[in-house]
């Protein structure tokens, strides 16, 4: 029961292709009430039965002969359908392409920092565009850029596959990598397990506070850069300084003799 008094049908417009109550024009239909097959009956009798129960007559298979209709609470049905669609949208992750920029001579510390975020984006279900930005005469040594890309792929080969092999776009060498199947699920499971362990440790520490001589363990360290966006990660590489005439540091003339 949906709370409506008998004899009052739902007058809301149904979704396209779905007819309810008096919008069902065929003379006879096959009727289902809950999970019971009531068989074929005149449409006006099915309408009367639905009205007596304070429910709606909903055409669920218009192409059948005769059409199949179900006596149900149409408002509740619409609510459940909307909820299913909302849950499906939540489960369907939107794949984005993140870009991480490198220099041909990226240092070890910067490489580790950027690789950590490449892995973070991959574990979030995103593709990652790796871009090596050349400056000045660096463009004459493309192998250095290839070496950088190969190192990143090597660091991520457990969770990523190469989707687009390296190619030059102006003064940038581009490669695209994508997460392997199951990477996102495994990352989520690992985070849940880590959160459960932290919660258990916190509970255990709380229980020891009242015991003399017992000290709670220090809180787990929180990495402040775990939520950095692309702009912050790429702050050390600026495409705007890609000047063809800019000299490489290795090509700078030696200082004059004192």
Structure description:
This protein is an alpha/beta fold and 258 residues long. It contains six helices and eight strands; from the N terminus they run ββαββαβαβαββαα. The longest helix has 26 residues, at 183-208. It is elongated.
Mean pLDDT: 81
Secondary-structure-based class equals alpha/beta
Radius of gyration from the alpha-carbon trace, in angstroms: 32 Å
- Placed side by side, the strands forming the largest sheet appear as 2-1-4-3
Main sheet properties? 4 strands, mixed
Count every helix, treating DSSP H or I runs of 4 or more residues as helices.
Answer: 6
Q: What is the N-to-C order of secondary-structure elements (H for helix, E for strand)?
A: EEHEEHEHEHEEHH
β content, as a range?
15-25%
Low-confidence stretches: 1-10, 242-252
Distance between the termini: 98 Å
Q: How many DSSP-defined strands?
A: 8
What are the main properties of this structure?
4-stranded mixed beta sheet, 6 helices, 258 residues, alpha/beta
What would a concise description of this structure say?
The chain has 258 residues and is an alpha/beta fold. 34% of the residues lie in helices and 21% in strands.
Question: Secondary-structure blueprint of this entry?
Answer:
Elements: E1 28-33, E2 36-42, H1 43-52, E3 56-61, E4 68-72, H2 74-91, E5 97-102, H3 108-123, E6 127-133, H4 142-155, E7 160-169, E8 172-179, H5 183-208, H6 230-233
Parallel strand pairs: 1-4, 5-6
Antiparallel strand pairs: 1-2, 3-4, 6-8, 7-8
